[in-house]
Amino acid sequence: MPGHNHDMFNARQAFDKTGDPRMRSDLYLQAERIIEATRLIELGARDGLAQQLTGVPKAKVNRLYCQLMGRPSPSGQTPFSDVGYLKDRHRLLDASVAWGLYKKLAPEKRDTARVFIEVYEGYLAIVNEPLLDLTRVCLVPNLVQMGIWQEYRCQYCRAAYLAPVDHLGHACPGCELYYRYRCRACGNALKVTAKGRYAKTCLDCRTIEYPG
Ligand SMILES: [Zn+2]
Ligand SMILES: [Zn+2]
User: Fold this and answer.
1) Summary mean pLDDT of the chain
2) pTM recorded for the entire structure
């Protein structure tokens, strides 16, 4: 019956206008959002992040957090700059791993909360010791969208990696770590001189220029 469907549609629209569009009138959709918020909290999300990604109202997220963790969510600002990643090549490497997962898992119109749950679960499965928490992993695509970071291709391993837009290097963080004590031309380990420094010329291939 077209008329009946039309009324249902209007009723649905009226209901949808009352809140976040992601918390639609369907009980099923609401339940799905709650499940996502639960999983995000289990993975380490604070109330603000769980609310932002799922659209579940703040009061509900707070109650959920208390019930799951036995304490209120810690307060404090979520990070919004790349400072926390740049201090450490290993963290940058992890950010590139998270970016690779995000690109695979975030085709358009997918539910944001579900994407980040899967990205973080994938990240935990790939790395031995996770250096980035869920908040930091969620920030990675934002840094790209905000134009702070961009994707580069590593000259050595051809992998895509992320770095600040003013980045001048040609190596991904993984290769930077790998070549820290190796000759970039032949890959052999750098020799240590009698003074305890790394030799400026590779003794194996005689390449002079490489960063120490
Ligand atoms: Zn590389
Ligand atoms: Zn060499």
Assistant:
1) 84
2) 0.79
